[in-house]
Structure to design on (282 residues):
DNA sequence: CGCGCCTCCTGTGTGC
DNA sequence: TGCACACAGGAGGCGC
């Protein structure tokens, strides 16, 4: 499930393989793959053909490819999206949605997406920061992320701490897996109310978020199945380092208590019953 | 306006 | 063996 470390791994691969190359052709194989782009496929294609990719940028779980035109390709992988570099002769993937070829005749860029929660769009004049991403907060790996402002906003919210970590307008890039991992490291239950967190506790949590994201980037991300791979089709190996996510019934790596699984926000949450006691409810 | 629930989508695994 | 259903979950939209 692509979160910040997986998207950053893809970004690095794309930067290496497509920066500086000029787009020759674009094929759209599925209508849902083009997101929020009202003018349609023809316009999407026309704005991209003949353009040179200048760079590959990321904020949170969003990627964008600034073009020499000043526009940008904006992408989100959703649940199952992949951006793959493939030789022209490679067989089409079952869920191939968009294909880019380049004027140098080298490897193609393919957007492949089983569940079609992901998609690409063209952002008019979005090379610097696409409008489509303007509402997304900076992520904690961004050197301009404001720790003080984050702590103040977090503590000012009237919600549960895991909900806040998943709020991409507060802090971006954290999804279900890394939220659970950061909460485990911080010894906090996800249902803890944000307005009851002390400043130091909020700062410790942020430090743990940053630490787990950093370690996962080094590992190339977390792959449970074939749905997340880098641009060369390779899996990340951070799943070996997980302490909470997906470990229901297995011993906590700190205290040995079996990890519990709870339903939260219509999805699974994993935590240690002993290290992360549930807050008292009133 | 803040908060939280619902929905989109498809392949895989499980239980009867 | 086959069918029904739960599950995976990011994020936009909408209702309270």
């Amino acid at each position: 499930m692509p979160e910040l470390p997986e998207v950053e791994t893809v970004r690095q691969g794309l930067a290496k393989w497509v920066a500086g190359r000029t787009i020759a052709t674009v094929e759209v194989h599925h209508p849902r793959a083009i997101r929020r782009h009202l003018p349609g496929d023809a316009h999407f294609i026309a704005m991209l053909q003949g353009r040179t990719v200048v760079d590959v940028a990321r904020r949170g779980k969003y990627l964008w490819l600034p073009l020499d035109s000043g526009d940008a390709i904006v992408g989100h992988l959703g649940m199952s999206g992949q951006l793959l570099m493939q030789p022209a002769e490679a067989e089409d993937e079952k869920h191939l949605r968009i294909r880019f070829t380049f004027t140098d005749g080298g490897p193609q860029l393919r957007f492949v997406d089983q569940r079609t929660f992901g998609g690409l769009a063209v952002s008019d004049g979005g090379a610097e920061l696409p409008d489509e991403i303007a509402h997304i907060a900076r992520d904690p790996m961004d050197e301009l992320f404001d720790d003080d402002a984050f702590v103040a906003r977090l503590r000012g919210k009237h919600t549960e701490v895991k909900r806040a970590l998943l709020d991409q307008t507060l802090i971006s890039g954290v999804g279900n897996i890394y939220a659970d991992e950061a909460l485990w490291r911080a010894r906090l239950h996800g249902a803890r109310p944000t307005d009851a967190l002390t400043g130091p506790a909020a700062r410790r949590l942020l430090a743990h978020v940053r630490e787990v994201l950093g370690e996962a980037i080094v590992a190339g991300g977390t792959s449970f199945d074939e749905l997340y791979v880098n641009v060369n089709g390779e899996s990340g190996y951070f799943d070996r380092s997980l302490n909470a996510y997906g470990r229901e019934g297995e011993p906590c790596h700190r205290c040995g208590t079996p990890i519990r699984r709870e339903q939260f926000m219509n999805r699974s949450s994993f935590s240690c019953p002993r290290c992360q006691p549930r807050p008292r409810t009133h």
Observations:
- The mean pLDDT of chain A is 92.
- The longest strand of chain A covers residues 96-102.
- Residues 23 and 48 of chain A are 7 Å apart (CA to CA).
- Residues 199-218 of chain A form the longest helix (20 residues).
